[in-house]
Amino acid sequence: MAKDKKMVKAITSRDVDFAQWYTDVVREAKLCDYSSVKGCLNYLPNGYAIWEMIQADLDRRFKETGVENVYLPTLIPESLLQKEADHIDGFAPEVAWVTHGGMERLQERLCIRPTSETLFCDLWARTVQSYRDLPKVWNQWNSVLRWEKTTRPFLRSREFLWQEGHTIHATYEEAEERTLQMLKVYQDCYRETMAIPFVSGRKAEHEKFAGAQDTYTIEALMYDGKALQSATSHFFGSGFPDAFGIKYVDKNNELQSVYETSWGWSTRSIGGLIMVHSDDDGLVLPPRVAPTEVMIIPIAQHKEGVLDRAYDLMAELKKAGYRVKIDASEKSPGWKFSEQEILGIPTRIEIGPKDIENNQVVVVRRDNREKIVVSLDEIATKLRDILETMQQDMYNKAKDFLESHIYEARTLDEMVEKFKTDRGLIKACWCGDEECEGEVKYNTGGAATRCLIEDEEMISDKCIYCGKPAKHMAYWGKAY
Amino acid sequence: MAKDKKMVKAITSRDVDFAQWYTDVVREAKLCDYSSVKGCLNYLPNGYAIWEMIQADLDRRFKETGVENVYLPTLIPESLLQKEADHIDGFAPEVAWVTHGGMERLQERLCIRPTSETLFCDLWARTVQSYRDLPKVWNQWNSVLRWEKTTRPFLRSREFLWQEGHTIHATYEEAEERTLQMLKVYQDCYRETMAIPFVSGRKAEHEKFAGAQDTYTIEALMYDGKALQSATSHFFGSGFPDAFGIKYVDKNNELQSVYETSWGWSTRSIGGLIMVHSDDDGLVLPPRVAPTEVMIIPIAQHKEGVLDRAYDLMAELKKAGYRVKIDASEKSPGWKFSEQEILGIPTRIEIGPKDIENNQVVVVRRDNREKIVVSLDEIATKLRDILETMQQDMYNKAKDFLESHIYEARTLDEMVEKFKTDRGLIKACWCGDEECEGEVKYNTGGAATRCLIEDEEMISDKCIYCGKPAKHMAYWGKAY
C-alpha cells in the first residue's frame, strides 16, 4: 500500500531550505500558528498536547525532588522590577507596560512579567523570618512576555509558555546543590523523555542570566548544525535576595542571608524536538512525548469484520494503557498513512482482512519505516517493546549525530574553515574576554561560546583569537 | 490526647463573624495571600495544590467528552475586543491596557484578556472553511484579569485562574447540546468531587454573559446563606461568530453560520469549598480534592520501633495509591493534630506503642472527628472506605443544609421577612422586569435572582413586586 504523496509535497526538504522546512512542519502538523497579536502564537491542540506531555513528565520529576507548585501574579510594579540593578538592565528594554486599568490611568506602571524573580523575592521578604521557614522550593507553570523584535514559532515569540522554579536556602552550598540538581532533572528529561542529547555546562560571564552569579545551560544540536539553548538553571548567591531584604534568623538567633536559585524550561523545547527528530515527511516524535502513541488504520475497512476487529484492538490497547487512536474515516489508507506521518504519531498499526485471517497486524515505525508483523495475541505487550526500542533508537541516532558534529579548533583559521564546511559545535580555548568572543563571532558569521567545558583537559593554552593565555575551553557554535 | 488549642485560637468563629472567619481560614491554612500588586493574589503551595486537584478532575471529564486543550495569547488588540458590541460594553470598563512594548509606544492598545471569546473567534474566522473543520471543541487553562474595585481571596481578585472552553458547531442544536453537556460536567464535578450541592438553571436576561444568548449557572449555598455563582456555561447562538465573519461551506456547498458556546470554572470554586465545608478549626476538604488524604502522626515517637512502623505504614499506603504524609517533627502530637485540622487533611492516623502492640491504628476523620480503630492488616483497604464514606457524608450534610435553607415567598413582605430572619434561597415569581428585581434587591438588602426555575410548577401567577402576571419563577438570594 503506497503512501499518498499529495499531502507531504507541502513540506520543503530540510536539506534544501531548513528554515522553510521548519515552518512547513509546524504548519502541516498543525502545532501552532500566528495570532492577530504581533509576535504571539496560538498553540493549537496538536502542539499544546505535546506541551502537556512534557509538563506531566517534568512536573513529576520536580515533585520527586520536593518542588511545590504555586502561582504568582502576571503583573509586576515598576518599582519592584527595579530593585536589582542587573535584572532591570537586562529586562527593561523588553517588557510590555500596563498603564491603564479600566478607565483610570495607573499611578505606577505595571509590566507583564518577563520572569518572576522579583515577585518571589518580594513575597519571601514579607514571609520568611526563621530557619524554620527554609528552604522554599517553588515552581510555577505560566506564560511570560518579552517584547522581541523577530519571532519564530516555538523558538522565539513575545509570549511563551514555560515553568519557572524559584528557591531560597539557608546556605550557599544547599542553593548551589539545588541549582545543579535541577540542571540534572532537565538533563534526565531531555535524555530519557525527549530523546535529545546535548552538551551542558556553565555559561560564560557575559552570557549569564541578568542578576545571576552562575548560569548552567543545556545546549542541544539541531539538524542544521545550530545549537539551541534548551533549558537553564541559575545560581544567584545572596545578591538578589539581599537586594530585596530577605533575611532569616538562624538557630543561634543571628540574622543571615538566604541563597537563591531559579530554573526554567519553555515551549522552545518543542522547537528542539522538531529540529532534532523530524524529517521531510513531517513531525517525528519520541514515543514518550507523543500524545498519541499509535494510530490504527484499517485496510479495506468496508469488508466484513475489519472495522469491528480494529475497534476491538483499540479497546484492548487502550485497556493496556496505550494512547491509541483509530482512523476509520472514508479517506484512503495511503492518505491516512501520510497524515499519521505528518502528525508524527510514532507507530501505526495496519489491520486488514488478510491480517485478521492470519491473526496478525503490521506495525510500522514512524522514525525508520520498519514494518513489524506482530501476532494479535501478543500485540498488547509487543507494542510497548517496539515503542521503547524506537525511543532508544531515536536517542542513539541523535547522539551519533551530535558526537560526529563536535570538532576541535586551535586557531581562528581552523575555526572559520570548520564553520564554513561543517555544521556543529567546536571545542576551542579562550581568554575569557568578551571582545575576543565578539571577533570570533564576526569572523565565523555568528559562532559564540555556548557553554564552558570544565571537566576535560584544555586542547590549547592560548586564546583562539588573541593568543594570550586561555582561561577556558568552551563549545562554540551558531545558535537560535 | 488533647488537641493543642493555641494554634486554632487564631481563627474567629464562623457564627460570630463569617467574613473574618473566612479570611482567618485562608491565612491559617496558608492557601494564598495578597501580593504587592493591588488586587492580585499569590497562590501558595497549599492553595495551588487544591487547584491542581480540581484541574486534574475537570480536565479528565472534559477530555472524556472530546475537548482538546489549546493556548491563545494573553493580549487582545482593542479593535478585536470591539467587534461584538455587547461584549465590549460588558468588559471595557474592567480591562487593563498595555500601551508600551519595550521602549516604544504601541500603535494600538492591547488589553490583557478578561476572557477570550474574541481571540477564539478571530482564529476560527481565519481557519474554519468547511463542515469538515467542525466542530471545534477547545479549552484553555489560563489566567484572566478584570480590574475589580474590591477584592477577596479566591472570591474576587483582579487576576484569577480558570479554564475557559470555547466551541463552535455546524448547527444550533449541537451547540445548545454542548452548552448543556458542559453544564452537566460542572454539575457532576461539584456533586461527585467537590461534595457541593447546588441549584442550577438559566440566568435572567440581564444577568447573562456579555454577548450570550443564554447563560446557565451553578449556584451553591454558602454556610452564611449567601449564594456563590460557581460555574457558568454560555450559548451564543450565531451572533458572536457572525460578528467575526466565521462561516463554513456545508455539504451542499452553501455558506452557513456557526453556533458558539463558552464555559468557565475558576479558582473561585476554592472559595466555595471553604465556605461550604470548613469549620472553626480550619479547612475541611472533601477527600477527592485533598492534595493529602491522610497524615500519619506517630505517638510517643521516641519509643523504640514507633517511627519505623509509622514509616512502613506510609510506604504501604503510598504503594496502595494514597496521598499520604507523615509528621515526624519534634512538635507535640496535640500540636500536630491541630495543624492537620487547620490544613484540612481529611484523615489522620495515630500510631503509638499501644497501637503497634495491638496491631492497630486509630483513624480520625476531619469532618466529624469520628475515631475509628482499624487493624494494621486491613488499613490499606479500610482507609479507602473511610475516605469514601466521608466524601459522601460531607455531600449529604451540605445537601441537607441547602435543602433546609430553600424557602418560598409569595409577597414582598414575606420575602423581606425571610431574608431578615433566615439565610438561604427563596423561590419567588417574577414578571421578568429588571426594575422589579432592583426594587426587591433594595427592599431585601441585596437579594436578586440567582437562576430561573423552569422544571417546577410556579407557586404564584403574580410578580412578587409589581403584582403583574409572572413570567418566571426564580431562586432569589444574596450573593458573593
Give structural notes.
Two copies of one chain form a homodimer. With 480 residues, chain A is of the alpha+beta class. The first copy, chain A, has three domains: 13-277, Bira Bifunctional Protein, Domain 2 (BirA Bifunctional Protein, domain 2, 2-Layer Sandwich), CATH 3.30.930.10; 294-386, 3-Layer(aba) Sandwich (Rossmann fold), CATH 3.40.50; 408-477, 2-Layer Sandwich (Translation Initiation Factor IF3), CATH 3.30.110. Chain A has helices at residues 5-8, 18-28, 45-64, 78-81, 85-91, 117-127, 172-193, 239-243, 268-277, 306-319, 333-343, 353-357, 379-403, 412-421, 434-444, and strands spanning 32-34, 41-43, 68-69, 75-77, 96-101, 104-112, 136-145, 159-169, 199-202, 214-221, 227-237, 247-249, 255-257, 259-266, 294-298, 324-326, 347-351, 360-365, 371-375, 406-408, 425-430, 448-453, 472-477. In chain A, the strands form six sheets. A seven-stranded mixed β-sheet of chain A has the order 3-7-8-14-11-10-9. A five-stranded mixed β-sheet of chain A has the order 16-15-17-18-19, with helices on both faces. A four-stranded mixed β-sheet of chain A has the order 20-21-23-22, covered by helices on one side. In chain A, helix 3 crosses helix 7. The first copy, chain A, starts with a helix and ends with a strand. At the A-B interface, strand 2, helix 3, strand 3, strand 4 and strand 5 of A face strand 2, helix 3, strand 3, strand 4 and strand 5 of B.
